[in-house]
Amino acid sequence: MTLRKKTLLLVAITILCSIAVLHISSTSVLLKGFKDIEAQNARENIQRVMESYTEGLTKLALMNEDWSEWDSSYRFITDRDPTYIEENLTNEALQRIKLNLIVYVNNNRQLVFGSFAEQKQQHSQLIPESLQNYLLSNDILLQQHEQQEGIILLPQGPMIISRRDILTSEGTGPSRGTLIMGRYLNIEELAKQTHFQITAYQYNSKLRLQPSDFQLAHQALAISSLPFVQLLNEDEIAGYTLLKDIDGKPALLLRVQMPREIYKQGKISMGYISSLLFVVGLVFGAVTLLLLERLVLSRLARLSTGVSVIGASGNLSARVIVSGKDELSGLATNINLMLRQLHKSQKNLQSSEERYRVFLAQSLEGIWRCELERPMPINTSVNEQLNYFCDRCHLRECNEVLASMLGYRSAQELIGISINDLLLNSIPSSRNLLVTFINSNYRVVDIEIFKVDKQGHKKYFLINLLGIVEHGCLVRIWGVQHDISARKIAEKAIINAKVTQTANLKLQQEIDERKRIEQALFQAKELAQVTLQSIGDAVITTDASNNIKSINPVAEKITNWQPQEAQGLPLLKVFTIIDEQTKQPIENFVNQSICGECLVGTTEHTL
Q: Which of 139, 309, 366, 520 could disulfide-pair with 402, CB 3.0 to 4.6 Å?
């Protein structure tokens, strides 16, 4: 995808996202505001309904006040004058003032007069017994000096009532009783007055029988006395409030339904705002794209084309066109500077490559480079690294010197072999050498190995290995090895020469020592001969077999044997001794001396 398309797509997405964000935010904020206004308006309408209800209650209270503070009523409560009834309490008069209930009770809680009428029916003096008991037993209603208004719940429907003390026309007393007036609460008439749809339920009726919205309102109003507002549907909203009875307790739950005109008008307004946002977004997007095309994209396209042409031709001496004085022109200037540096670097690289090739070709040492198929993490175990070396590390470059060292005709024959094959049949083994390489932080220096080359010749090498680690992974291995076979042969010859020299020296020392010993023996022998010849005792020497080796002159005279004749003869044949007294031969004391390894003497009578 071209940059122009990406820009178009990016601007379109940005504008659409902006419109969506503005629409959502404005909708959430404005519609929430409309909803709040709608709820406030609903509460105000509930207040209007309550004011209309209060107005009816106030009118009833004012009418009750006119009748209760009247001298005629004051007299009637005691004398029960029928004329008062005929003039004021006829059915027509009560219907005219829209009363459904009027009750006169004296201070003894006795019913003086009472009239009751169902809705839209004529009055009758017969008040239902339950209602009569309620009115005569209610302490709040009959409590003097208190004005009371409120609702009572009758089987026929809710009724608003007002209660006043019966006093004189001047409003003075003492009070002679109580006047109670009542009028049915007409929900339909209240709805007509307020122009709302109004529904009422008894507060204490069974909650489960009421509609669900009344149940929810019942729970809310049980917690708070403020009017409760909730949505019925998309078109209607309802407000709920409580009407209290004469005892001050909740009597009726009133629902006021209203159309959601404010919310609908808010939605219409939001539609206009959204349409306006969309139109503004389109105009803004078109203007933005036009400006981007003229100021950025077209110039960037020309710059990209110039760079592509230079890249395709490989001519780093060419330059791109610079126009304007903004960031793009600065980019073009930087590209030209980069091309200038690349051109310079290319020349340096070519020169360095040439020097490297010359060095590789003229070096007297074998140089090689092995590459791993994929970088190998150095935090793996030694066994995993060894297996990886053997399977995925291959020779990619070497010089001819290395090929000659290993018995190959050219370096190309070595390209592609594994590092394990490169170090095959070496002592120490390739595996041990690689273990040393790994444990030495991927660097070994002057390790001596013995290897048999391809031709079967024994070779000695000094090898150096260096692993290149990048980003925690081993990527390649460089190796340099030097043939030291000639040196090893020379060292062996020197060692052999040193050994021979040492042996000759030792032999000469042994010969000299033997000559010295022989000379000493000769001197000792000569000394012994002189001594034997010069002493006055007879001395005969024998070997271990008792054969005579020599005799001195004294022994020669005693034995009458010449030295030449006696030499080699047994001692007993030349030298025999006897006891002078017994004439018996004496046991050979020479044997005794030899066997006992001690001196043996003879007696004085030995001959």
A: 366
